[in-house]
Amino acid sequence: MHDFYSRRALILFLAPLLTAGCVLGQTPKKEPDVPYVPTTDEAVAAMLDLAGVQKNDIVYDLGCGDGRIVVTAARKFGARGVGIDINPVRIKEAQENAKRNGVEHLVRFVEKDLFEADIKEATVVSLFLLSHINLKLKPKLMRDLKPGTRIVSNTFDMGDWKPEKEFTVGLRDDEDSFLSRRLFLWTIPKQ
Hints:
Blueprint: H1 2-19, H2 41-50, E1 58-62, H3 68-77, E2 80-85, H4 88-100, E3 107-111, E4 124-127, H5 131-144, E5 150-154, E6 165-172, E7 178-187
Helix pairs in contact: 2-3
């Protein structure tokens, strides 16, 4: 268990350096608001299920990283998807992930600050940010999204905006230690 926390601390220390693209020589136009920590496959599946994703949905992932959420939504449900990330390295990884999974015709990836991105066509928005970033993003979500759009967040809530549903997903790390993540679901209300 101690090794798990040491590895996690190392990941959190190195993530901003890797997110900045130092290793590959590509840097984002602006420093990301959160470190890149990939969503586990179990959490991806649970998030999509909690949001009730179907073929007619358009899934937006804000801070998409390697694109695994929109790629999985396309592969599993046939849904269209858009991943937004500020880091060009992550966008390249996401495009390669879509191609590897044969869903590049259903998804696209945009290098942009999530606070400036056009998200109006989304029917589902997925987040794995931080609580204070979710709160900063909330006015944009309320302003830009149509009533009925579902928002699902991994681990981080939205303060006093109480979720309609919560779900705990159990995970196992590399050393078979048990972890869990809280997932939250909200729906944009009628204005």
